[in-house]
Amino acid sequence: MIRISSQQIFSGGINRLQDLSAQLNKTDEQIATGKRVNRPSDDPVAAARILKLDQEVKRIETYERNAQLANNRLGQEESAISSSLDILQRVRELTVQAGNGSLSASDRLSISSEMKERLQQLAQTANTQDASGEYIFSGFQGGSPAYAKEAGEWTYQGDEGQRMLEIDDGVTVAISDNGKGIFDRIPATASGALTGPLPLPVPAPDGRINSISVINRSDLQAGGFSTLEVRASASILGGELDGLDVLNTDGTINKTVPFVAGEPVTVNGVQFTLTDAVVNDVFTIETGEKQSVFRTIENLISGLDNLSKSGSAGSDAYNDLIAGSLANIDNAQESFILKQTELGGRMNSVESTQAFLEDSALYSKEIRSQLQDIDYAEAISTLSFQSFVLQAAQQSFARVSQLSLFDRL
């Protein structure tokens, strides 16, 4: 015979009621939070996997924010360059208009006045700021304007830094471009001037070099000269000018090409004409220079304001200014378009990464939901059953606790 004391009966009953109440509270908590696993003890294996998935989702969300930031910055830069192209197109139209030989001096001043406004607009575009107030074309010096006016000229104030941003594991994208690489380093057309023999007398000789253009860049590169120095020469001592000596950097003759007055001459892929040149005149031609788009427009404005078209020298200088400016503007437009294409490629890359991150986040959240979230229908059914069992146990315990051997006497 096993003897069961009243204390055992009460202790066992209370323990059972506590267990049932704990199960009911657990189910109630799951319904309230919507989670099947609220603490590691609920399901240790699932809890470990949920923790890893939480970390993965947070990692993806961080990269998604970075990708959105990159997309916004690149979109703003692309918009600024697009605006610059529109401004430059208007400057080109004005330059073509300025080349009209029937314009008066007041007409040229009117064109110059509008060009000054367009130059100011271009500088404002180059000094575009992002939402945080940083100048997007200043490199790492985002707190300072990219361009400022010094001694009447717009000059670059930033550095050559390029900001990078990680948008996924091992995937980085450039989110900025310094203005020096966009607005400054633009190939300039060939230019030339009378530079010798030194010292040049006062007033300077009448010899002029005009209509300079690179017609064969392969020949220019093969010649190995970015600066050409040519000297007018005569095949017969004391004779008329009939040749041009191409000089080495040490002043020795590299080669001699024939020259006919009034006809263009080509040297190392560079074509030009000489006017009023005499034997021993030395002309220097620059072919490898870079020039900012601001300098191009500034030079054009200065020419419109100051150059006179009177006389053959003035007319030649003015025509060279217009032709050279048009070529430099075309080079700037091409440079801007290439940058736009590059930005488009970067934005496509960012968008592809965003789509991948979105898919990865969705997949991770679905797995986490399967491990963590409850089935409400099942949970509510379980809660009702547990509530019924607890109520029945309470009623049963209440009746059992009142039993006594004295009731049988």
Description of the molecule:
One of its GO terms (cellular component) is extracellular region. It is found in: Bacterial flagellum; Secreted. One of its GO terms (biological process) is bacterial-type flagellum-dependent cell motility. InterPro entries: Flagell_FlgL, Flagellin, Flagellin_C, Flagellin_N. With about 400 residues, this protein is an alpha+beta fold. It folds into two domains: about 35-185 and about 295-375, f41 fragment of flagellin, N-terminal domain (Up-down Bundle), CATH 1.20.1330.10; about 190-290, no CATH class. About 55% of the residues lie in helices and about 15% in strands.
**What's the structural domain tally?**
2
| Rg calculated over all Cα atoms | 42 Å
Number of helices: 8
Number of strands: 14
In CATH terms, what is the fold-level topology of the largest domain? f41 fragment of flagellin, N-terminal domain
Helix content: 40-55%
Query: Which structural class matches the secondary elements?
Result: alpha+beta
Mean pLDDT: 83
Sheet bearing the most strands, described? Answer: 5 strands, antiparallel
What sort of overall outline do the alpha carbons produce when their principal axes are compared?
rod-shaped
Organism: Marinobacter psychrophilus
Family: Belongs to the bacterial flagellin family.
Coiled coil: 53-80
Domain Flagellin N-terminal: 15-139
